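Subject: Sanity check before I submit

Could someone independently write out the structure tokens for this chain? I want to compare against mine line by line before I put it in a report. The sequence has 180 residues.
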Amino acid sequence: MMSATLPTPDNDWLMSLDEPALHAALHARVEAAWRVAREVHPTLPCPRVWLDLRGKGAGQAHFSRGGLRFNPVLLRENREAFMVDVIPHEMAHWLVFHLEGPPARPHGHEWRTVMQKLYGLPPRTTHRFDVARASPAPYCYRCGCATEHRFSARRHSLAQRGTTYHCRQCRQRLRFVAQK
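---
Independent answer below. Compare away.
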């Protein structure tokens, strides 16, 4: 597997794009990453692309839907990182799935090899984006060690209906304190 890195996009250009142009740039970048992956797997299907992912995740290879999902809020706030890291990360998952099949570990040896040797990138498994606007968690819970735990509306609703959550440090049950 040879390294065929994607050229780094100009950050000044990325920052000047309005939302529709940014989404078009993301689609073009996915296609460029797919073309690089086809050097390894010539029959690799082109993934469909959606900008419908919510929460803390930046991207997701969604095999049953036949494509890649991206978080539009995190894209808008982390444009260059998406183009340089997130898109190749998800395309590596797409390629490994089509080469190895479902038993492959998500960030296993095959995926790491694709990231390093095909895309020339370090195989980072998580991002460090500020997810406050992408994943609002206005519900505050506390435990015995006084650690504050923030819940999304969905998790808060589950807790109100009886699902119990515990602190990972003190193992005590989390109790609702206030909505911020």
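---
OP: Matches mine. For the report I'm noting this point. The helical segments are 11-16, 19-37, 72-77, 79-100, 109-118, 153-160.
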